[in-house]
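Go through the following before class.
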Amino acid sequence: MEDVGQPGDDPAAAASSWYAQACCWTLARAHARSGDRIAIASYLGNGDVFDRALADYATAYADQNDNDYNELQKAVKSGMVTAVPAPTTGKKGRETPPNRRLCNGQ
């Protein structure tokens, strides 16, 4: 993992970044050891039942994500919750893409 802390950085932010990197590394290792591809293929068989189920799940998940985001936007507009704009520059001065900013593209 790369060094995430720089002099003057917020210690909580540096710890959070380190934690996120550790989680990503752990998840990647877990997926790399997720099983024998031949055994999994044998278990799933030749049909498309699993494929269709996975596609249906992904579609439902995306729809739920859209619904949740729309509800969040409504809550922000009504004043029920407060949204704080994301920083406009990321690590090493890179611009944060507009689609990664919080609520209303701020």
